[in-house]
Amino acid sequence: MIGIVFKTLLAAAFVASYQAAATTTTPFVQLGPLTEEARDAALAPLPGIKFREGPAVFQRPSKREPKDRLKKTKNYSNLHSHDGKLSGRLSATRRLGAAQRTHGGAGYENITAANAYGTQYGLNVTFGDQRLLLDLDTGSSDTWAFYAGTNCTNAFGEVVESRFCKFGPRYGGNFTHGAIAHEHLYVEYGDGESVEGPLGYMDLTVGGFRVRNQTVGLANETVWQGNNISSGVLGLAYPALTNAFYGPKGREYPYYAMQYSPVFSTMVDQGLVDDFFSVAINRPTENASAGAIGFGGVPEGLAGVDYDTTGQADIIVEGLMLIAAVFKFQANVANDIIAASDYSFYTIIPDGWYFGSSTDDKKRPYIVDTGTTLIYLPTCKSLSPLLCPPLVLAQAINNMFYPPAVYSFMNGGFLTTCDAVTPRVAVVIDGTPFYLNPEDLLFRSIPDEVTGLCMTAFNDGATGPFILGDVFLKNVLAVFDIGQNVLQFASRIHY
């Protein structure tokens, strides 16, 4: 999903730096901060290549007071719940009436339920002059749609009948403001899905706001597992996760990457909204609202919000630090050297977890992602429980179900009986426990066709990145503040 890949250019630079270090008086490894003179001396043998030192791998959450982001807005978008599989699209490149507004405005879009499952969520976006339902995804940054020229391909790159991809309605036009020459979109998702196609400029309407000349993609080829409802993806993460590349398909390397402004960043840049948005996902029932997203405010009339139970966490820059000679490379979970020194995912570090009478206070990074259904936790996949550490979080919480949930390699999740008793579980953020409604912890309405068992909400996250998906987001009002790079939460268990 997110392996660190060293391309030829990076490898060559690494070797050159090693050879240079062996023939210079500059120390191979220097402890403590580097002076500018030492850094310049170390990097001098690499003409034409410029490095910058990224921030710390993990930035500790601060206790600064955020701006008041809980102002209400009548402008929001309803969310729509799709019938379909549990969304494993671990979002971010891994692996849901138009009026020009003045600055400081606020908009919303409702989320409307199409079924009782609540496994995928989307909202209506006007592409040019055509209204489409796009998957809402805070774990990726690209916005794109299927169109007349979209081919359905299988995992081997062979074109197959479109019914296998289950496309929703397709966009019927072209780029209203022209295509972008010599650039293309290529996105790979963690569950094996991928999208490739041209990029261009389009006017979009999102939450009542007209976003002008937005960069979007149209899918030429896609490996997709759709639902016959949604027509693409609306990505709301940071610009570092955009997937534009210079040149033809096949050049999807970091040194061909062409970063651009995604939809919400453009909305802020054009003065349409303040620099934050809020998401409230409901447990959908048939013909009922599946929640709402507010741009520059919090949707009015949200049921069940407990403004006395709140917490905040800084969004961190997450990466793996590699030290070679006396300079640092960083590669983050997006498999992109550049993104490692920029904000990319909405990643936070909770204080820990409460489950039953147990606690886990290990500090780990979690991506907050509307494009993923489940909660992905550390786990151990050994066939023998005796070979696993005494407390692996995914197993520990799943053991609290009665009867205990057991990992199924065939289903890719933890299964138990559909009438199992669920534990009491909370994720602790900023010292506040955010409890999860027992109704969300077991997918009782989607039994496995072979075993008759049901999947729990806590899945295999291996060694990371870990994810707080829709199961968590159904229990909070979440504010994504890109101005201050902080996430705020208010409890929302019962509604």
UniProtKB/TrEMBL annotation:
Keyword Acyltransferase set for record: no
Keywords attached to this entry: Signal
Signal peptide as annotated in the record: 1-22
Annotated GO MF terms: aspartic-type endopeptidase activity
Keyword Signal: yes
Domain of life of the source: Eukaryota
Pfam families the UniProt entry points to: Asp
Disordered: region residues: 58-83
Annotated GO biological process: proteolysis
A GO CC term attached to the entry: fungal-type vacuole
Domain Peptidase A1: 121-490
Family label: Belongs to the peptidase A1 family.
Record protein name field: Peptidase A1 domain-containing protein
